Structures are given as structure tokens and as C-alpha cells.
Automatic annotation (TrEMBL):
It holds the Pfam family GFO_IDH_MocA. This is Gfo/Idh/MocA family protein. Gene3D superfamilies: Dihydrodipicolinate Reductase, domain 2 (3.30.360.10), NAD(P)-binding Rossmann-like Domain (3.40.50.720). The lineage of its organism: Bacteria, Pseudomonadati, Bacteroidota, Cytophagia, Cytophagales. Residues 49-163 form the Gfo/Idh/MocA-like oxidoreductase N-terminal domain. It comes from Larkinella insperata. Residues 211-298 form the Gfo/Idh/MocA-like oxidoreductase bacterial type C-terminal domain.
Length: 449
């Protein structure tokens, strides 16, 4: 018999009642969660309260990836029509047009998914981080080198804030294979890298429209402009077409560099380049050129001969390696690593890596797995890290320098045909000081970072 049963005939004192109740409650609270809620049950307290800012395009996909396991509590977009389907899908989420009003009014937000046009990434992310909010920011992280450094600095100074850039290929299993094979010496020392994309798939090389158009009733044009200079509305700018304009996007290199340059940058342990040189079709400094080539030099670990990386966009392709045989260079994009003992090729997002020639791949004895696999989506990886379960795989401490490298290639368009020497420590071009103005931008009145 238990002690309580022995005393069943005695009056139940308050002290004994409290003790017995506490013991019973303790017995309930230590039950496994799956017993309480069934298989796959997630307690409300274990869910992240997420706000989406910029939800009509990639933001919609990001939120859909998070919705099964997290709470979508707020939605913010400057274009009601473009964002309409997402508003309808999450009817319980509060709606906003201005992220500043959202952050001020809604205190229950744990983290933000920011998928606005590129020129707004920096100001929104920095505002959220200063309030202690976790942030997931679509690529490219920012549109200027200074902004990328600022976000990386904020991330370092606020270690409890979990950050992630939306270069989803960084979470793929294949991306880890690339790292393991290169570390294994599968192609020897990598001396040269070629990176290409089929972008732009939006208009570029355009002149600024001469005639203004009436702003749609569903669009807040002033909020769309944000920190960028004021100009009259025209349908040439939005939606989606903003990527081709210097004031709003980062062109093909900014869009796809985060997916393609990411893998050699990671696998080879690179830092921002020591030099960069660009050439392109005509560039009017308003809209990015139709096609461009950018050549980077990166310092190697032995500090001897630099590693050379060449970027191609707008339909320009790298020289076809003999090892491709009858196979054409894939026009959709990819990365080719040239080492002292062979070559390695993979598609966009790090997909389908293979050694060249085919015989080398067939005979290659793969090394043991050394890099843990993520096993969940890039968005879920961020959300779990926010809840203290593991770490985000593409935090701003990594994404900032990666983005800086891409953006330097864009700045190089302003002085083509010149090898520009980059002083990363002092954030300046040593032989072209006139270009340093493009490393930062002026913010329109009322907007700050």
C-alpha cells in the first residue's frame, strides 16, 4: 500500500493535498509529447511566430515551407493584388503594407522572412535584428557591400538572433558531396573555376521610361521605392522586373551568384577577392547589361598563385572542356572546377556533381561522409535553429562575405576592362577610388539602415 492509502481514513490536510496534486501534475508533464498529441504533434509553444515581408513571389514559397510547423502570424506587402493569394491562404495572419508599422504594432513576432525586392533587404533586416527578431533574407543578402558588412556585423553582435540567407542549395545533400570530394583531393588542387547562368530571364539593358503611368490602386509606390531615389511609377519596374534595375535589384550576378558562386566559395574556403575585372554589353548605369563576364582572383591558402574564377551570364558560356565529349555545355547554368588532377562539374544549386571524364567518376572511391546532412528544407533549418535545435547553415557571417564578392563584380561594371585591386580590410578599391562610391548608397529621406 502507498503512504496515501495508509492515511485514507485521516482528514486530508492542505499540505498533503498540495503535495499529492504536485506529484500527479509532475507525472503528467513528463509524458512524451507524442503520447499527448499523437505522432507528429507539435505543441503550440514549440512553434515559431513568423511574419512574411514581401510575399508575392519567393516569399510565398518560403512561407509555405514553414507553415506546416510554424505559426504565420503577420503578412506584409506593398502590392495587395500581387500578394492577394497569400493573404487568402493565411486568413488569420494580420495584414500590413509597411513593415515599420508591423514591427511597432505586433510584438508576438519571433522571426521575419524577408523576400522583398533586393533594395529593401538591408533596411528591413537591420530593423528586425535590432529588435531581437530572427531573420531569413532572400538572396542576394543586400545590394551594397556596406550593407552586407553591416548585417554580418549585427549578426555577430547579436548571437541570439538566428540569421539565414535564402540560398537554398546550401542545404542540399549534393552540396556536401562537392565539399567532401574536393577535400578528398578528387581533382587535386583547384586552380580555376567557371560559373555561368541562363539569367537574366527578365528585361535588362533598358532606358528609363520617359512617360509616367498611373499607380495601380493596389500598390503603395512610395513604400516600394523605400530607400531608393524617387521616380515616377511605371509598369517596367514591378512586379518581378525590378531585378534588372540598378535601384532595385542586383541583376543576374546578384540573383544567381548566391546559388552558384556559393558552392566553390564554400568548398574552397574562399574570402572576398583580391581583384575583379568585368566586361559587358552596353551598360547605361540604370539597367544592368544584357550579358556580362566577371573575372575574380582569390588568394589561396598557400598565398602563391591566386585562384581564378570567371562568371558568365546572358547566354555567354565558358569554353567547352574536352571531357564533355559530344555533350554540350549546359545552357541552364553550372559550375566547372579545374584541378591539377581532373575536373568537377555540377548544375545550379550544387545539384548532380560529377567528376570528369566519366571514367574518373566511375572509378572514384567516394570518401566517408564528413559533413552532416541537413535533412529538412532550408527554411525549416532556419526555424529549427531559431528554436535552439541546431544551427542555420547559411548565416550572415558566411552569407555577408559571399554576397560582397558578387556585388564587387557588379561594381566592376562601372569601370570595365580594368583589373581592380580590392582591399577587403579597408573596404576600398586601391587603384580606382572613384568606384568606392558604389560600395554604399544614399538613403532617401525617412529611410535609414
Amino acid at each position: 500500500m502507498s503512504n496515501l492509502e495508509n492515511k485514507a481514513d485521516q482528514p486530508l490536510s492542505r499540505r498533503r493535498f498540495v503535495k499529492a496534486s504536485s506529484l500527479a501534475l509532475a507525472g503528467v508533464t513528463i509524458l512524451p509529447r507524442h503520447v499527448l498529441g499523437g505522432k507528429g504533434y507539435i505543441a503550440p509553444s514549440d512553434k515559431l511566430n513568423v511574419a512574411g515581408v514581401g510575399i508575392g513571389g519567393m516569399g510565398k514559397s518560403n512561407l509555405n515551407a514553414l507553415a506546416p510547423t510554424e505559426n504565420i502570424v503577420a503578412l506584409c506587402d506593398v502590392d495587395e493584388k500581387y500578394a492577394g493569394p497569400v493573404f487568402e491562404k493565411y486568413p488569420n495572419a494580420k495584414r500590413y503594407k509597411d513593415y515599420r508599422k508591423m514591427l511597432e504594432a505586433q510584438k508576438d513576432i519571433d522571426g521575419l522572412v524577408i523576400a522583398t525586392p533586393d533594395h529593401l533587404h538591408g533596411v528591413i533586416a537591420s530593423a528586425a535584428m535590432k529588435l531581437g527578431k530572427h531573420v531569413y533574407v532572400q538572396k542576394p543578402l543586400t545590394v551594397t557591400v556596406w550593407e552586407s558588412r553591416e548585417l554580418a556585423r549585427l549578426a555577430k553582435e547579436n548571437p541570439k538572433v538566428v540569421t539565414q540567407m535564402g540560398n537554398q542549395g546550401h542545404s542540399n545533400d549534393d552540396a556536401r558531396l562537392i565539399n567532401e570530394w574536393i577535400a578528398d583531393g578528387a581533382i587535386g588542387k583547384v586552380q580555376e573555376v567557371h560559373v555561368w547562368t541562363n539569367r537574366p530571364i527578365w528585361p535588362q539593358g533598358m532606358d528609363v521610361p520617359k512617360e509616367a503611368e498611373e499607380v495601380p490602386s493596389t500598390l503603395d509606390w512610395e513604400l516600394f521605392l523605400g530607400p531608393s531615389p524617387h521616380r515616377p511609377y511605371h509598369s517596367a519596374y514591378t512586379p518581378f522586373k525590378w531585378r534588372g534595375w540598378v535601384d532595385y535589384g542586383a541583376g543576374a550576378l546578384g540573383d544567381m551568384g548566391a546559388h552558384l558562386v556559393d558552392h566553390p566559395y564554400w568548398a574552397l574556403g574562399l574570402n572576398p577577392p583580391i581583384s575583379v575585372e568585368a566586361s559587358s554589353t552596353p551598360f547605361n548605369k540604370q539597367s544592368y547589361p544584357m550579358a556580362s563576364m566577371v573575372t575574380y582572383e582569390f588568394e589561396t591558402k598557400d598565398k602563391k598563385k591566386p585562384l581564378v574564377m570567371t562568371w558568365y551570364d546572358g547566354g555567354i558560356l565558358p569554353p567547352k572542356p574536352l571531357e564533355f565529349g559530344d555533350e554540350p555545355v549546359p545552357k541552364g547554368g553550372g559550375v566547372l572546377y579545374i584541378g591539377t588532377k581532373g575536373k568537377l562539374f555540377h548544375e545550379t544549386y550544387g545539384s548532380k556533381p560529377r567528376l570528369l571524364p566519366k571514367e574518373k567518376m566511375d572509378s572514384y572511391k567516394r570518401p566517408a561522409q564528413t559533413i552532416p546532412r541537413v535533412g529538412i528544407s532550408h527554411e525549416r533549418n532556419w526555424a529549427e535553429a531559431c528554436k535552439g535545435n541546431g544551427k542555420a547553415v547559411s548565416p550572415f557571417e558566411y552569407a555577408g562575405p559571399l554576397c560582397e564578392s558578387m556585388l564587387l563584380g557588379i561594381v566592376a561594371l562601372y569601370k570595365q576592362g580594368t583589373k581592380l585591386n580590392w582591399d577587403t580590410k579597408n573596404m576600398q578599391f586601391t587603384n580606382a577610388p572613384e568606384l568606392n562610391q558604389y560600395l554604399k548608397r544614399e538613403y532617401r529621406q525617412g529611410w535609414v539602415m
